[in-house]
Specification:
The protein is mainly alpha-helical. It is 39% helix and 9% strand. The protein is built from four helices and two strands. A two-stranded antiparallel ribbon has the order 1-2. The protein is globular. The mean pLDDT is 84.
């Protein structure tokens, strides 16, 4: 498992975490890492950010990514929301929908993108 930027208590503040919380946190953290391929920030020997502003932004981004999955019916695999189906009377149409591309070609939650941008991590700012 790679770096994980949030704890279950930081994400599920108003209810108990789901049984697969660790998997969701790991997958969301992977998505954030993929979106930050060009970001530069100070990190410790484990690769975790040392600047509290950056650490907070990564936690907020993970929380936003998991909330986004919950709202779109995704389970962290990226499979949900990729197909649509429309029926009007005797006519049925179905087709694949492409997710919006983000940095690192990840379907990044809009709130996650904003948290990373506010922290100066996107679009690949060097400071």
């Amino acid at each position: 498992m790679g770096r994980v930027y949030a704890t279950p208590e930081q994400v599920w503040t108003d209810r108990p975490p789901p049984a697969d919380a660790d998997r969701l946190l790991a997958r969301a953290s992977e998505d954030i890492d993929d979106a930050l391929l060009t970001a530069v920030y100070r990190a410790d020997s484990a690769g975790m950010p040392t600047d509290p502003k950056v650490a907070t932004a990564l936690t907020e981004a993970v929380r936003a990514q998991i909330e986004y999955w919950a709202a779109t019916g995704d389970d962290g695999t990226g499979a949900a929301g990729r197909w649509d189906s429309v029926s009007i009377g005797p006519v049925s149409l179905a087709g694949r929908k492409d997710a919006p591309a983000a940095a690192g070609d990840v379907d990044l939650a809009p709130r996650a993108h904003r948290a990373l941008t506010r922290a100066g991590l996107l679009p690949g700012v060097i400071w």
